[in-house]
Amino acid sequence: MHITFVSVLAILSGTALAQGPPSLTKLLSDNKNLTKFNSLIQEYGDIYATLSFSRDITILAPSNDAFDKIPYSSLASAFSDNKTDIIRSVLDLHVLNGTHSSGSLNSTAQFLATWLDDPRYSNVTGGQTIQIVKQSGNDIVTVSGLGSRSSLSTTDLQFSGGIVHVIDTFLVPPKDFISTAPSFNLTAAGGAVTKAKLNDYLDTSKDVTIFAPSNAAFQGVGSALVNMTTEELGKVLDYHVVSGTIGYSPTLTNGTILKTLQGGNLTITFASNSLYVNSAKFLQQDIILSNGILHVIDNLLDYNATAVQPNPQIPTQPPILQGTSVADTPFSSDLPTTVTSVATSIDTSAPTDGSMATSTDASAASSTTDADSASATSSKKKSDAANIGCDRTWGALIGGAVFAVLAL
């Protein structure tokens, strides 16, 4: 009996499929809840090929229902106008380096590197991240740009290159500070940054941590701020910015010291299950920016009062910067009108009451992120993953061909 070359390859392929997880193509084709995602990535042949050849990755695949939500989200115009460059960035945000099973996730927020390295959305070392955390009831939630949330509806679908988790809402690429501020009612901070002419620096610098006082905090000491010169206001705001370090909340342990753009130090305190920077309490934490992370705090920080300590026994910390309340929120009118108008059209499920998906763990490792000593970038990891996959794929084909020739 003659065995043809094609027959041998078919037998070998069938055996391989029977012995291991399916290919990405088969997994997506067999899952009726991912037909729209499967169709979308096939429109981008290079991304589809890279995903198919890659190894050790996790794909957060939007469900068919997630696609139905697009017209009501901040991604509406990108998809309706077929803005392929933005859609590519959106797809890259849904691919994580490494395999992350649901069992590896817990109540401490993790910030996992994605394939997104477009500098418009990812001016951070190692590629843009998303936040993922397991909440009560074992619900797993992701948080991306503009505080957009998504839940994992189906987990741990294994394929030859890693794991697929199905999510119920698209992830959103993050924006810069000025574009993000209005979505979290930080018009005073955004306007003050603009008036002090710091917006270009904050929006373009790499790896920043920003502690932004709430509108109420600015209003409460408004008399001390509105008559400051540009230089004086800039110096105050500089004390709220850490450059070269992304201070995700799990890394901000009790006693962490951070050097600010102003030159003075900030001290992190963890007490009574709350985080404080100097004496200001965190109201909302870990808002992902295109170039770092943003935390909302309940008071302005004063570089002349670096030793002040919080009082965890009271819910709201008294102002440190001396001033009296003003009737209107200061600096809000200084925020660019194009930013405020765009913000009103954004539909996210981000909380505004200070609650967050993240859980602070006081025993987490201290913050050691440094732009000059960070690991390889996301694009290199993406390339490596694809190269490994290609090597294995071609190796298998060549091996099968040799076997077939020998069998003839």
Note down, in words, how this protein is organized:
The protein is an alpha+beta fold and 408 residues long. It is built from 15 helices and 14 strands. Helix 1 packs across helix 15 and helix 4 crosses helix 15. The protein is elongated, with a radius of gyration of 24 Å. The termini are close together.
What would a concise description of this structure say?
By secondary structure, the protein is α+β, with helices and mostly antiparallel strands. It is 33% helix and 19% strand.
Question: What descriptors fit this protein?
Answer:
15 helices; alpha+beta; disordered C terminus; about 400 residues; disordered N terminus; seven-stranded mixed beta sheet; about 20% strand
Structural topology:
Blueprint (H helix, E strand, L loop, with lengths): L4 H15 L4 H7 L4 H9 L1 H9 L3 E6 L1 H6 L6 H5 L3 H10 L1 E3 L12 E4 L15 E6 L5 E4 L5 E11 L2 E6 L9 H4 L6 H9 L3 H6 L3 E6 L1 H6 L1 H4 L4 H9 L2 E3 L13 E3 L5 E7 L2 E4 L2 E10 L2 E6 L39 H7 L34 H30 L1
Parallel strand pairs: 1-7, 8-14
Antiparallel strand pairs: 1-2, 3-4, 4-5, 5-6, 6-7, 8-9, 10-11, 11-12, 12-13, 13-14
Helix pairs in contact: 1-15, 4-15
